[in-house]
Amino acid sequence: MVVHDGSLGATADALRDRGVRAIVAGTEIGVPLAEQLAHRLGLPGNHPRFSPRRRDKGAMAAALVKAGIDGPRSLATGRLTEALSWAGMQDWPDFVLKPGDSAGSDGVHFCSSPDEIRAAWKILHQIPNAMGGSNSHLILQERLRGTQYVVNSVSAPAGGRARHTFTEFWVDRRVGTHLYDRMDLLQPTQMLPRLLARYTARVLDALGISVGPAHTEVMYVPGRGPVLIECDACPEGSYDPAAMREVTGSDHIRDAVHAVITGTPDRLGAGRRRDFVTKVSLIATRDGALDEDRLRTLLALPTVRGYVGALAPGVAVSRTVDVLTSPGRVVLAADYAEDINEDYAAIRGLEASGLYGRTVR
Predict the structure, then answer these.
(1) Nearest Cα to 198, choosing from 236, 225, 221?
(2) Closest CA to 188 of 179, 178, 198, 177
(3) Within a 13 Å sphere around the CA of 317, how many CA atoms are in the beta-carbon half?
(4) How many CB atoms lie within 10 A of CB 175?
């Protein structure tokens, strides 16, 4: 095992000694380091000069503007006065204030007035975020309204330009603004995934993602079309590779490694693809611990194929307020939508009847 201690040269030397052939960032926080190491070792990777486009949401939005791609109208600033002045000049009523380099729904605040922007700024500015950043600057954006989608992809150079292969398209359904509910896999031959693929390919090019994985979140705004929320140059998080291989024949993590090593972004498909696949995020309405009987019932539901999270009897859980506080995510797959929906309802019923019932003392 190689642990990075802050010295890029030492880490690169250790990897070289081990004959490493490819470097893929596992999470958002590792993207700049992975790109620097790949560049130093002469391995395939996205150029580190443009790493900020792939981590900072302000630089990301600016790259889209430069490329003529529709993106969220944004301001990146470290000054509240500038944020308030910019907001006052816009012609839309609602805004999103969030960290520049965090992930998920960490620190995301929806604001509809100067007072709400001030209050959210006071909470966020100069505090640590979930990805280890300091929130020295924040991103103020228009609030997009529509249906949210997730697009997973892998890329590799081909003929002097990047070739992007799209591995999964998901429609993201939520409860309110921050609680993840379920994500349903879309068939890639449908019209909407094709539209999302065309838009996302342009985004990937603008952000300089030519090698490896990307996890892109897009809002489809009625009357406007796809608009980027954010794009991460790494595999999707909260992901069960074994379950995804079973139900789709491939998985984002394996596909990403394959693309970087071989230079071929094609999906590694084998086996039967299920017609319906859903990822259900568990939602704890209170602090507690997982009840053994109800958990056993949940994991034995007919369409359950896998899960992510510490789902074991007695494990403590906190009340779910966002994706980072969900107890876990369960993968369901079936040949009929009715079977998926029946087990989804059963999961929510188990939660309501005491899945998190035992109070932690």
Answers:
(1) 225
(2) 198
(3) 30
(4) 12
* Secondary structure element (H or E) that encloses residue 349, with its range: helix 337-352
Asked whether the beta carbons of 154 and 46 are under 8 A apart, the reply is: no
CA distance 96 to 108: 7
Q: How is the chain split into domains, by residue range? A: 8-50, 73-142, 276-352
pLDDT tens string 193-251: 999 999 999 999 999 999 999 999 999 999 999 999 999 999 998 889 999 999 988 88
- Separation of alpha carbons 70 and 29, rounded Å: 26
What's the CATH architecture for 276-352? Alpha-Beta Complex (3.90)
Task: Find tokens 């109800």 and name the residue.
Answer: 294
* 207-to-5, 54, 228, 234 alpha-carbon distances in Å: 28, 6, 12, 13
> Per-residue pLDDT tens for 299-312?
999 999 999 999 99
Q: Which amino acid is at 110?
A: F
The CATH architecture of the domain made up of 73-142 is 2-Layer Sandwich (3.30)
